[in-house]
Amino acid sequence: MVVFGITPAKRPVMKRALLGICLLAATACLNNSPVAPETPLQVVLGPGDQAEVPGAGTRIRFEGVTGDSRCPGDAICITGGDAIVRVTVTPARGSSVNYELHTGDMKPVTHGVLTIALVELAPYPFSSLGPIDPKAYRATLRVSR
Questions:
Q1: For residue 31, which phi and psi values (nearest 5 degrees)?
Q2: Cystine design at 144: which of 28, 37, 40, 55 (Cβ 3.0–4.6 Å)?
Q3: Per-residue pLDDT for 8 more than 70?
Q4: Number of neighbours of residue 118 by Cβ within 10 angstroms
Q5: CATH code for 41-144?
Q6: What is the distance between the alpha carbons of residues 133 and 35, in angstroms, rounded to a whole number?
């Protein structure tokens, strides 16, 4: 019986050819697949804690909060205020550098090829709870290239 113009004698040849094309296509996709961009590192650090940036040989240490004038969650304020988060970046080679990140503008800092952004500072102040213990702060940082 002839199916789509292919005689029974030609079917094994066609199957092998089709299998070869599929394998070639699969191999081509594996070798030329785009490389996914590096995922940013996101860490939560307490005062004195540090994190290693994979592949960069760099450490980031959360030194602490040097000032917290954020508007308490149970108050009405004219401005939102600001908290200052101090971090130290220590590269594999070279000197350590200190940076200040602000909750008021959430503007990231750049250290070489790394961008360091403050994502969140917890806990949030409430006037009914009184001042925050400096050891209780937790900074969520995002580091990207």
A1: -75, -25
A2: 40
A3: no
A4: 24
A5: 2.60.98
A6: 44
